[in-house]
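User: I'm designing a mutation panel for ABC transporter permease subunit and want to avoid disrupting the core. Could you give me a predicted structure to guide residue selection? Please restate the sequence first so the numbering is unambiguous.

Assistant: Good idea. Sequence first, for numbering, then the predicted structure tokens:
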Amino acid sequence: MSHSAASTALPGASSTGEAAAALALRAASLALCLLAWHWASTRRLDLGVITFVNVPAPLDVLRAAWDLLQSPLLAKHVGASVARVFGGFIAAAVAGVVLGLAIGRSRRAGHLLMPPLEMLRPIPAVAWIPLAILMFPSSEMSMVFITFTGALFPILLNTVHGVEQIDARLLASARSLGAQRLALFAEVVLPGAAPGIVTGLAIGMGTAWFCLVTAEMISGQFGIGYYTWASYTVQNYADIVVGMLFIGVFGMGSSALVRKLGALATPWKEEK
């Protein structure tokens, strides 16, 4: 009896031990990065091709972050950036998924839509600034458009790949069972492409935050990207790093949220 109880407890204990080991490894990795940053910045390391002479130390960044957290402007900065990123992301999610499903399912749609999209895809977000200012009457819409362009293509391409990777035998089996076009789309194509769509959404959310500084260079008095750029113009180096870290944390958190919601929406997909 005792041997049986011990054997049944082993899988859970192993899982807990693996989780603790993974957490310790991640913490050690972060600590090593911080130590390397501290050593290079305090030593004013200059290797010729890269220099840390003007890079602020972690403690300086921590003090600047504490000052920002106590500032009444923090809520305005965060609120403005979140609204711009999610506005662009939601528009990109709708456009990317709809276009991706159409291109993935229709060869004619692919021939018609992919050439201009592939031509636009390599254009960096910063190159859109002059055109965005000309296209939109308000600077707010211009900034949302920049985040939209950043998020669109990862969502679009992952949706297309998700549709194209559906096993043709599943489609043939559904047709042989009498599935019509709408049922085939709802019950085979959409579930089959869903993991790819979720991956694209998570990447798209990250790239939307990636484009935030570029977007908020256009105009605006508030926003994490604007705060980062304004800190650069007045050479507040610690504040630059604080802005970068805020963007990284918010980007990582929102991408993780998208992946979590995607996992709930695709329970049939096995976790690796």
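For picking mutation sites, this is relevant: The chain has a mean pLDDT of 87. Residues 118 and 158 are 14 Å apart (CA to CA).
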